[in-house]
Sequence to fold (486 residues):
Amino acid sequence: MKPHFIEIGSYQLPKAGQNAAGDVFMSRKIQETDRIISVLSDGLGSGIKAGVLATLTGTLATGCIAANMSINKTAKLIMRSLPVCSERKISYATFTIVDVDKGQDVRIIEYDNPPYLLIRQGCEVEPVKTEIQVAKGKKIGSHPKPAILRGSSFKPQLGDRILFFSDGVSQAGMGTKVLPIGWGYNGVKDYALNLVRQNPDISARELAHAVVIRAAYHDLGIPKDDITCGVVYFREARRLLIVSGPPIHPEDDQELASKFKSFPGKKIICGGTTANIIARELKKTIRVSLKVRDLTIPPPAFMESADLITEGIVTLGKVVEYLEQDAKIEQLPENSATMILKHLLDSDIIEFLVGTKINEAHQDPTMPVELEIRRNVIKRLKVLLEENLLKQVSVQFI
Amino acid sequence: MNQVKVTICVGTACYVLGGAELLGMVDEMTAKFGGKVICEGSPCLGFCKLSRNSKAPFALVNDKLLEAATPESLLKAVEEALSEVQNG
Fold:
């Protein structure tokens, strides 16, 4: 059994005036070999050209490691594949590759990004780094100076966080009166350590977001470069149960309520009838909130022993839409769907308990065709959560 | 009791067939009638499953069921219920 669960979070703001970021943060989970790879790459310059080169770097890195190539060999391959600017004689994209093998071994290779920060028990830990010299360009020796890559490895401990960022973070504020030479690595480090000490359970997503927003603040709200931060957080798994739909046999109602009650983690009910069944079995009262008033989505409700109650299919459909759009939760309106989304983002192991009884009222031809079959919506949600957010998802039908 | 209780169903069928507009009436009714009208939501009143002929969205004004409720019919029902309770 794995000692820890790995949460990966990132946040990014593109350079002011650019529609596309020139930094790329990407992660991939390889189920077969139980590996998680995260890459932060910063393409030279900004905008689309930089973004394409950073994407090339990130894709090469995740693809090679997924194919079981060693992290050192992958880094060398990238270095030899990257185009070198004819005038500046430097490679087009920097990178930090974090490879977590079976949740128990971390290997990191860095090339020209600010150094990563390893936070353990609220303090900075500095792993030993070895230098690896790699020739630039396709032909070895075609470039006067080899590139210096830094490699390190360690055994992660419960609560460890790896924070890595582009130079848009460490150079934020450069040229301003307050920070003439920029925020700097130490500034970022002190800020992140302080946040972790104040909020020891801060999620990877929240920490990455806070660092990026602080950097943008130092840039006086107008990012002078792409600002990207990623966090890998080793923690105990956070579990979430989502119950949606009444059981096909009413005699299973009690079992549903009992499973719901005894679940060790956060609990959400999606569906009015389902909520009424659980409330009846557990002898609880449901209160619908009329304060959250985004009229495109039915309002949330609350009940003792549930963390959230929402309407079913419309709300879950909206959650799928948000995930498909890769929407930033901070920019979404407050409604039941964003409340579910927040729970999903903050959880590691997500279990769906799906009732398969068909609501005949939904089959009325006057109902909008968008009202899909619950099972299909849950299936899409599962794929999105697994592939885009690297969550561990299971679905049980009742 | 001089208050009128309005319960608006926010289940799927009701919500997509106009229940959202009824929820939009909550502020208006609170402003117009003050504490005389108490508004609340219900996850599902269950009327959509009772009969094929019944028509969502549903709302309850005290114990009176409103079918195919609209903001106008809801307001009318609330005013009628208020005059009933006031006239004793």
